[in-house]
Amino acid sequence: MMPEELYDIIVVGAGPAGSTAAAYAAQVGASVLLIEKKKDLGVPLQCGGFLPHLDTLQELVPNAQLPYMLEEIPAECIHTTSSVQRFIAPNGYSKEFEVDADAIDRRRFDKYLAKEAGRCGVDMMVGTNILEVNGTSVNVDGVFGAHTIGAKVLIGADGPNSIVGRAKGLVRDPDPMGTGTAFEYEISGVDIDREAVEMYFGKDYVPGGYAWIISQGGDTANIGVGIREVLFRNGLSARDYLERFMYEHPIASPKLAGASIVSVVSGLVPVGGAPKVTATKDALVAGDAAGHIIATNGGGISTAMVGGKIAGQTAAEFLDGKCALQDYDERWRREMGLEIKTAVYVRKLMDNLMRSDSMMSTAIRMIAPEQMKALQCGQLPDAVRKGLIKMNFGIK
C-alpha cells in the first residue's frame, strides 16, 4: 500500500479504540490512515476477551453512547457465552452473581473492527512501525517501506506505552501500582464450568491482583493472572504465579489437570486511571493510552471503544471548525470519567485488603452479590464503602 502524503487524521493502533476512532471519523468524510505495528491484527493476543452483553455494558457506563459495533457482535467472533461471575476467596469461600457475557475471540473481533473501518473508507498500513513523531507527521517503516506521512490530527490508540502520548506529553504520573501485568494461557483438555467466569484471590497466587478461568467453549479456556510487578516476591515472575495457580491452587488446579497450553498471552494493563490531560491542539489519546479501563476488573474493550468513538468524532468536528480538539478531554470524561475514577478508588481500597488473605476473605463474605457486581463495574455502593473503610484503616 502506498499512503498519501497527507491525511486529515492518522490513528496509531488498530485495536478496539483505534479502529473505532478511525471508522467514526471516516464516516463523516475525514481522510483517515490507520497504522498498526502487527502484521496480523489481534496476534499476539493481549486480552482475556471477556465482554458483557450490551445491557450490562450500558450499566457499566450509563452516561455513554456505545458504539454501534457493540450492538450485535458477529457470531464468529464469540467463543462462548457465560451467565455467572464467581469470586473465590483465599479461604475457598465463593460468591457469585448473574452477568451475561461473551468470551470474545479477539483475533477475529479486532479484524472485524478493522474491516468495519475499511468499509468506512479508512486506509490501513499493518506491519508498520512508528519511528518518530514530528508535530503531526510520522516517520514509519515496515512491510510497505519507509515513509513520512503528514496529518492535521494524530490519535494515539497504541496502548499504555503510547508513542503518540509520549511525544505529546499525554502520559500518566509515575505509579508502580498503576500498571498491572496480565499473563495468560489459552489451554485445551480441561473440564470447567462453562457457564461461569471465575476470579480467584490470594496473596500466595496473585498478590494484589486476581487469577481467572474463562471458558472458551468445549474443553478450552483462557486462564491468567493480573498482578502488579511491584508486589512480586523476590525472584518470581508473572509466569511463575500463573504456573503456581495452574498446578498448585487447591480449587483451580484439579479443574485444570491435564491441560495443554496452546497459546501464551501477555500485556500491560493500565489500572492507575487516566492522564490529567488527554488532548492537545493537534493530538488525542484513547483506549489504554488514555487509561480508558475499569481498574477493578481490568476490562477495557467497551470503554476503549467509547473513547475511540469520542476521539474520532471530536477530531472530525475539529477539522470542520465545530469544536476545539481539547474538548475531547471533557467529552469522554462526561460519558465515563466518573466510572473510571471510581474504579481506581475502589482498586486502591482493595489493594490494602488483598495484603491480608483473612481480610479479603471477610470482605468477599460480607459483600452481597449485587454489591459485588457493582464493584466490578467500578461503582461503590455507600454501604460497601463504609464497610471497606472500616476494615481498611488507612483509607479515607
Automatic annotation (TrEMBL):
Keyword Iron-sulfur (UniProt): no
SUPFAM superfamilies membership: FAD/NAD(P)-binding domain
Entry-linked Pfam families: FAD_binding_3, GGR_cat
InterPro entries for the chain: FAD-bd, FAD/NAD-bd_sf, Geranylgeranyl_Rdtase_fam, Geranylgeranyl_reductase, GGR_cat
Domain (FAD-binding) ranges: 8-171
Molecular functions (GO terms): FAD binding; oxidoreductase activity, acting on the CH-CH group of donors, NAD or NADP as acceptor
Residue intervals of the Digeranylgeranylglycerophospholipid reductase catalytic domain: 181-269
Keyword line: FAD, Flavoprotein, Lipid biosynthesis, Lipid metabolism, Oxidoreductase, Phospholipid biosynthesis, Phospholipid metabolism
One Gene Ontology term from the biological process aspect of the record: phospholipid biosynthetic process
Transmembrane spans: none
The protein's name: Geranylgeranyl reductase family protein
Origin species: Methanococcoides seepicolus
